[in-house]
Amino acid sequence: VQLVESGGNLVQPGGSLRLSCAASGLSFINYDFNWYRQAPGKEREWVAGIFRGPGIDGYADSVKRRFTITRDNAKNTVSLQMNNLKPDDTAVYYCDTEDYWGQGTQVTVSS
């Protein structure tokens, strides 16, 4: 199983980014996926998750109504649309399924 994240960047507060996670080596449609993040000096925290099948999703309180997780079962990708970004969103963002992890992508929110 391989997960490859992309889309991280430097963005100003209030801006938007879209992260992607490309998955391979698994039957994508049968897996749930999560996004986690880890800020410097802090523990890794769960951000959002999306279930298999009809795409039921869930979010941490800190990102509700700002972030949206989606999946494309035809392209084996999971995305995280992040709007109204705040400096506290600065972190390395990781894609996860069944304890398989990607290498992470850096998101920095700063003016």
Explain the overall architecture.
- This protein has 111 residues and is mainly β.
- The protein is 0% helix and 50% strand.
- The chain has no helices and eleven strands.
- It has strands at residues 2-6, 10-11, 17-24, 33-38, 45-50, 57-59, 67-72, 77-82, 91-97, 100-101, 105-109.
- The strands form two sheets. Strands 2, 4, 5, 6, 9, 10 and 11 form a seven-stranded mixed beta sheet that branches. Strands 1-3-8-7 form a four-stranded antiparallel beta sheet, with no helix packed on it.
- Strand 7 and strand 8 (77-82) form a beta hairpin.
- It starts with a strand and ends with a strand.
- The model has no long low-confidence stretch (mean pLDDT 96).
Structural class: mainly beta
N-end to C-end Cα span: 37 Å
Fraction of residues in β-strands: over 45%
Order of H and E elements: EEEEEEEEEEE
Mean pLDDT: 96
Radius of gyration: 13 Å
Regions with little confidence, pLDDT below 50 for 5+ residues = none
The number of helical runs is: 0
How many β-strands, per DSSP?
11
Question: What proportion of the residues is helical, as a percent range?
Answer: under 10%
From the spread of the alpha carbons, the general shape counts as: globular
Which sheet architecture does the biggest sheet show?
7 strands, mixed
